[in-house]
Amino acid sequence: MNTNPLLPMGKAAREAARILATTSSQRKNDLLLAMADGLLAAQESILAANAQDLADARAAGLADNLIDRMTITPQRLHSFAADVRKIAALPDPVGNEFDARVLPNGLRISRRRTPMGVLGLIYEARPNVTIDIAALALKTGNAAIMRGSKEIRRSNLAILQVIQAALTQVDLPQTAIQYIQDPDRALVGHLLKLHDYVDMIIPRGGAGLHRFCWENSTIPVITGGIGINHIYVDASADLEQALPIIHNAKTQRPSVCNALDTLLVHDSLAADFLPRVVRYLAAAGVRFRAAPAAMAIVGDHEAVTAAGPDDFDIEWLNLTLGLRLVPDLDTALEHIRVHGTSHSEAILTNNWQHAQRFLNEVDSAAVFVNASTRFNDGGQFGLGAEVAVSTQKLHARGPMGLQELTTYKWIVLGDGHVRA
Amino acid sequence: MNTNPLLPMGKAAREAARILATTSSQRKNDLLLAMADGLLAAQESILAANAQDLADARAAGLADNLIDRMTITPQRLHSFAADVRKIAALPDPVGNEFDARVLPNGLRISRRRTPMGVLGLIYEARPNVTIDIAALALKTGNAAIMRGSKEIRRSNLAILQVIQAALTQVDLPQTAIQYIQDPDRALVGHLLKLHDYVDMIIPRGGAGLHRFCWENSTIPVITGGIGINHIYVDASADLEQALPIIHNAKTQRPSVCNALDTLLVHDSLAADFLPRVVRYLAAAGVRFRAAPAAMAIVGDHEAVTAAGPDDFDIEWLNLTLGLRLVPDLDTALEHIRVHGTSHSEAILTNNWQHAQRFLNEVDSAAVFVNASTRFNDGGQFGLGAEVAVSTQKLHARGPMGLQELTTYKWIVLGDGHVRA
Q1: What's the average model confidence in pLDDT over B349-372?
Q2: Domains assigned to chain A
């Protein structure tokens, strides 16, 4: 049996997690505030490291949008630090007891929230993820082993220095947050097999990364973040509300997972409303892929082309929108079932029964009536922070906040109790 | 790419799950009552099938305790049917809404409990598991694909006929509960890869089965049921309470996962209490494996032998008990950390600080003060039923009842809301 080269890291993380598990909220908050201060104090070294990463990325010909996501500016660094202060100000879920009761035999039982233990994080080139996840993990008393993509390695290491200095400042072990520096890709596979020491894997990236994780991990994986999202405009919809909702869901931030991908419109709205949608959204730069019946109505608009065979199975992440006319709610529900990823779906309607059926029958992390899919977000839902948006059903579904980084243990208090 | 031979089964289960998800509690209860009636009505055919399984098992030389677990008697069948009626009488968690609130912008959000979808169950030779899990799955609106061990195949198929007849009786698809009949072991591996159709894998069996599942599954697995459990008797313990608690934890049902495996006793209790424990439990048939210091005190008792190097890392499942003297609470905590499986641990103490430290620092599914570890059970904790006892941290920890077979979706009700 080969030895996992990450074993020492795993052991150190487990040991740090043991200490973090009984660290007070006060000290965890002091730690986060020290991190926020440290980020600003280290601005020069962080920006210098980031500049080197950016130079290499440009030399390697990385796309502009990727380079933008990698870029740290003084303004962005201030906003990262502000986010850490916000996380410090949130209530700490650890230690909360729930479902407390006294059993007929007098045993007192409750469930008490505890940290998950050690988180494994695998993510793509966004330096803010390093800061965010470290702050969320530490706030909830978890240790973490992180692996960012190699393009952003120097920036991440500069940030890691700040985090580890803050840990030392509040007398906690630096091993609470560790970073896999070696760019060898095989180490990602090794992290996924570190089941004796890591309790949960959180991938942050595209569908390929998620798939790689759940195909190869012996540790539970939180999958999510992939949304092929739908809005169905029912015959009874308030069309004056519908236009801004569709516009918001598609254009407010097209590159994220809760943005709209496919618009399903009831046949009765084909003649008037469909052309209005096309005009209204085309003005915002939206380009359409229309199914045949919709094509017959709006195909002459320059922004509209015929949908290809796979166009309703793509998470666009840009200003492309699929268009399809449907004869009834059942067809809309079936389209969502066949093409959706169970992320975010909305119905726009004024029909009570249709709204109820949509809420009951659509099996997605978030189901909306008369609202934009863009609200499927931890911040918007009032969780205060967001770790990820889960599209799996185990443990957490939809936006994950601090509570979703915890587990619980049963506390049982007796007075000589034995089982009969 | 090879085609998974279980694909048709997966598709049928997913389709059945869609229907079950919106089936009323009333009809699900009618179904369970029809199953209970059907089990009694089919007594003759079930016992005949079981007799064939038992004859083969005896011919193959299976151990007596395994044969006993496989055996269905008229009395046991009545008790299986009674259990199904009990599950029918429990409240249905599906549809409950929680965390409901109105956001500052007027959006109404809540989390609504929904069925998990499709469960994959892999279990060893206990025919009651077939009935239990089918009833629990159907009560919570889930479909299931089941795979029992080949020794009990005929009994399981006779039970399956009853379940499927009951499904037909209440006009639900028979594919809600499917059974993998082919004894080919490769099919277990195929079930673990059916991620497009199965939402959760529940193994019920020994450590080897659990390990096989989480090593090979691309579907989230609930692991658990393996308990190397500890009781630490503190210097301040009420010794008159301690003896019956230890006796209960070890002997009341030694073959199950919440039974006691190792007793840690404070040094100060070595001379008087330790010999009392040995005498008291030896009279109940307990045999001891003692670490050196304990051996020096009680080694002359015929029930005591010296512990081998791995004896504190074994889940005994019989009347063997590990014995170790410890100089302080820290050593007890460290022993539990190194040798435990995070299942059930108890401290017997009258020292407030020691009790608090034990509750805070022991990272197990259930942590007890002055009570027997045998209470770590869904029925005992008042959950009404038990699917499994999880020792993992994701989703559910400790006893899993009906609620733990559900997930939730976010319900978001707007009135033209768009994100700013």
Answers
A1: 98
A2: 7-223+396-413 (3.40.605.10), 229-380 (3.40.309.10)
